[in-house]
What we know:
heterotrimer; B: mainly alpha; MetI-like fold; 2 domains; C: 18 helices; 15 strands; 43% helix; 13% strand; globular; transmembrane helix (chain B)
Amino acid sequence: MEFVDSESARKEVALRQAAVQSPDRVRKRASLLRYIWFNRYLYIMLIPALVYYLIFHYIPMYGAVVAFKEFSITKGILGSDWAGFEHFRYLFSQDKFWEVFKNTVIISLYRLAFGFPAPIIAALLLNEVRSRLFKQTIQTVIYLPHFISWVILGGILINLLSTDSGVVNNIIKLFGGTPIGFLSNESYFRSTLVLSMIWKEFGWNTIIYIAALAGISPHLYEASVIDGANRFQRLLYLTIPLIRSTIVLILILRLGGIMEAGFEQIFVLYHPGVYRVSDIIDTYVYRIGLTDGKFSLAAAVGLFKSLINFTLLVLANWLSRKMGEHGVY
Amino acid sequence: MHYTSRVGKLFDSFNIGFLAIVAIVTIYPFWDTFVVSIIPLKEYLGSNIHIFPREVTFEAYQYLFSMNELWTSYGVTLFVTVVGTAISMFLTVTAAYALSRPGLKGSRVIMFFFVFTMMFSGGIIPTYLVVKNLGMMNSVWALIFPSALATYNLIIMKNFFAALPDGLVEAARIDGCNDLRILYKIVIPLSLPAISTITLFYAVTRWNEFFNAIFFISDKELWPLQLFLRSMLFENESSYSGGGDSVFLLGPSIKMATVMAASIPVMLLYPFFQKYFTNGVLIGAVKE
Amino acid sequence: MMHWREKSMKKWVVLAMAAALVITAGCSDKVANKAGSNGNGNSSSNSSSNGSTSSTEKPYELVYLTTGDQGAKPLVPNDRIIAEINKRLNIKLTIKIAPEFSYDKINVAIASGDLPDVVTTQYPSSSVSQWIKEGILLPLNDYFDKIPTIKAKLDNGLQWTAVDGKYYGYPFVSGMEKSNYTVQFRQDWLDKLGLQHPKTLDEFEAALKAIVEKDPDGNGKADTFGYITNKPVPGDALTAFDFVLYAYGLPDADYVLNDKGEVIPRFEHPAFKAGIEELRKWYKEKLIDPEYILYDRPAKEQKFFQSKAGVMDGPLFRHVSRIEGSLKQVNPNGVLGYAPPPAGPDGKQGMATHPKTALFTAVTNKAKNPEKAAEFIEFMLSKEGRDLLQLGIEGIHYTKQGDKIIYNEAEREKDGFAPNGWSHPLAWGNVTWPIDEDYLPQTEPNIDRARDSVKVASQYFVPNLVTRRTDAEIEYGKAVNEVYNQYFVDLLNGKIDVDKGIEELGEKWRQAGGNEILKSVNEEYKKENANQ
């Protein structure tokens, strides 16, 4: 569990020791103060962000205890009676909860496995394009669907994939195939979800890699050409290592969002015929009104998801630091 | 060498062809939406796939642009986007720079303290109370401050800053530059691709914001664009069968025209920022 | 290492908690101090400059939080209708709108202690139950002499909404007496195929078959479906095929009784099985569009306009003009027809049902003058208030020539009235909808057919076995509906065996909360019938 700031730990140890040996303590404190004074501008620069997090995140954080309470409006969050793990017990006792939990994880892993590499590949391919105009045009075009909400995109998708008149199935029919119920058939639904998610978002997600690639000097490329590297070698030994830290960072953050499997998209596209494969925690909780006005239960669901996200993020961060990367903290 | 270049040429043609196909596939939803906004109802209802409009009309836009709500919500969103992005960038750049300095004491704890909030929150009630106690309820500030800093963006920004050559900053410090000056004079100019990326991220998020507005805004005059858009798209079933006012006014063209009006301004941001994406040359130069 | 982590975590938690305590303590004080003063300069408040002259009393500041009619135009500052309400009631009205039917917003505002004087939200719901339990809503009984319209409505069929004899708000149940939900079809196709309005299920099936096989749109291909519908709203049961079940003799819309007189789920009635078998036959013969479960309502209608299907279910009334108008856009010869639902082998028929949900308008304990707040609700519902909200102020927004109303559209637009004689933003979606008022402006082109469609649909109401929605139904209703929908879809498309499917549905339905529901509904049924 390396993630604790070892420096602050060391500091604490030092201060404790200092408490016993007072002259040492004075010296330590003086040097710490000197350190802070030397870096005062950096610490001052942190203040606005600290204030923001304190006011809008840490002060409201007490609200999380409502997951362990029986929320009463008149008593308020802190005054409400304790309920212990009652809400969690209720949640975990629902068979359905584990089914939707499983779906959440499966869909999320699919999204990760296919949705995560897609923008990296796209960015690398774009990086190989020599014509600047072509490159910028493609970049601009592929990021457009990000701005069309799922409500609209869902309608378009249903038309495109319809079995009796959709373009995709017309092409399949043209080649002598039988139409596929991409949205109505359980066996195709998840793939349709993941593919359409990539369709909508991969272009937007390339931006960050393109920005990272923009930092690579053409001189490096020239040098590598002189060294006799071919394009593939350049990609492998030059380009990818230079965006590796960005890739790792995004991967860690994606793992920290594993419990988010795309509420809006699924909510627009799914229907009773495919609940078994596509109902995720968020859609289930919303649809059956489990949390309608029930703040305690909603907080319990949220806390459960947070814990899983948090665990994965911490593990991923620890691993990445082990492997010599920066990590997110 | 000959072999490589032939393979390289083959790859180039394949690459360009492939990207072109991908672009055509991804532009479709946008194009479909645009076409629906300029065709008469008759043509819309007649077909599910809209590629080439047979008849073009701008009635939907005329109707839309005559709605006062559109312009007031443009005003709100423009203000929130410009002022909000500026505030966000200030918070992000300052914090990211400080946190990107190697070995700054306490920086990892602070970063952890920030990252923690990405996963854990106290829920909407205490946030509502904070906004209310700050007197921001039903004001544009409620659309700006509660999500003024995105930890995700902070992490990315910090990572970009950390990739700058250490020697640069240290040298400047030894020269007696203070960190504010270093940030302003050296780090920011060298990080334009990163700064533009994060500015773009913030601006787009601000532009698309509606969650805070639902909870903190109760006056239609202060609705941001996205709430206006959603009110145009949203069809409530009880309102529908009860025969409220909503359902009769809006044809699909007007809805799609609203989608266009709500997204084109922000779509134009990226091409604008793109020119900064090639300025990275400098960084490399320093690095060597 | 773990030790340190816990320690540093604990530190943060303590810090956050301390800060939180400070904030909440500060806040509750503030709430108490400024109760009613409504500090944070609010929404469309309209100074009643010309209003307060009639009374020496200072106008009462009244905050109203509602979802309203989302499609309505926004309230404008200096709205003359609001000013008129202010004047007549001697209040200063501030209306807060929760966008997008966001009951969440209302729940959060109330849970945070940010109470309006009057609130409209969905009912029955666990939120409203909690508000009543915690004393946040005030009973209206004390003000009955001031609110005759509300009292009359409550006494006339809404007694079931009382809690321990007290009414905590006005529950507006849309579609209790009137419905516009019926079968719609392509009249021009039936004419072309030489078919009458199908009166029985057999005729209905024959009509669907003719539409599918005889190429009524004349494009040379047998590419039309017979019946098309859309997916239900999440949490609602799929009811689009219910008219077939009612034709087979399903007696009630909500629950049925078994031989022993106990309440059981309706899918365990023999009529359900008979109906499902009929529907499976239709599905197999491709009389039903197999992708109906993907469509939302606009997508369904579009297929209908495009001649992809000949029959659909849906609401009419105001929609007669819109649906027929859209149909004619694509097919200039298209004609919309509607008819009563088809009758089954024993002559039974039914389609429309009575809802058990409402929009609930109530007075909260924040109201300094609850009587005034109740009078405001009364006003929105009274004849006087309806006239003001629908027509406006005589001489400004309209003039009368005998019975004929002449709208002054220019003046009406200034105060947020919708065009073509439609109403003020506050008119609909709070205490009534146009259909329940039988309201159509005189500008409506198909006024007679619109009214007739309601008459036709309203004749075939299917009763409910139990009037009230029980607490268990509030809690588990959506969950069991989803189980029902899943099985219904599979039963219809033939994926599972009928007997086995219904049996399994019974088990899963009970597991998902059906047991609790049956228990509570049985009790409720006994209670309601003992009272009679």
